[in-house]
Amino acid sequence: MEGMVFVWLFVIVAAILVEASTVSLVSIWFVPSACIAMILALCGVKLWIQLTVFFVVFILLMLILKPIFKKNIGLKIVPTNADALIGMQAVVIEPIDNLHAKGQVRVRGQVWTARSADGDVTFEEGQTVNIVKIEGVKLICSQPSKT
Question: Could you give the CA distance from residue 33 to residue 30 in angstroms, rounded to a whole number?
Fold first, then answer.
């Protein structure tokens, strides 16, 4: 059973290192789970009990505490440069036709692959469109609102 103490210690150190490099609030829950399992190993508890406790504690901590931590520590999604394009207008330089999977627009001097937000609507070259969202490397466009 003493060998399991070192396994749990390794899990603790690995989880700390992974969490420090990703800050994703996933691997950090392995730390208290592994600490409890390591204490059980030191007390001579059977391996299957250690593993069961480890996974139950991990799942409970993740389900209960992760939403609280995310809300309170303010992990914010930082918009990328591409996200700033949403809401802007672009000029169609290749007709947008979802049915034929083609279309390009120019915005801020860059050419982007574009698709229509409404699959039935096509846009002709020279038309101005609104960028409503980004899916992968494609701009999803709609007709500009009339003001």
Answer: 5
pTM of whole model > 0.70? no
Lookup: tokens for 130: 């609104």
pLDDT in tens, the chain (147 residues): 578 999 999 999 999 998 888 777 778 889 999 999 999 999 999 999 999 999 999 999 888 887 787 777 655 555 666 777 888 999 999 999 998 899 999 998 999 999 999 888 899 999 999 999 998 889 999 988 765
**Chain CA centroid to CA 104, Å:** 27
Task: Tell me how far apart the alpha carbons of residues 109 and 15 are, in angstroms, rounded to a whole number.
Answer: 44
Distance, in Å, from the CA atom of 54 to the CA atom of 29, rounded to the nearest integer, reads: 10
Residue 117 is classified by DSSP as S
Query: Where do the domains of the chain lie, and which CATH numbers do they carry?
Result: 2-73 (no CATH), 82-142 (2.40.50.140)
Cα–Cα dist 65/100, whole Å = 47
Task: Judge contact between 105 and 90, C-beta under 8 A.
Answer: yes
Q: Rounded to whole angstroms, what are the CA distances from 120 to 59, 63, 115, 131? A: 45, 42, 11, 17
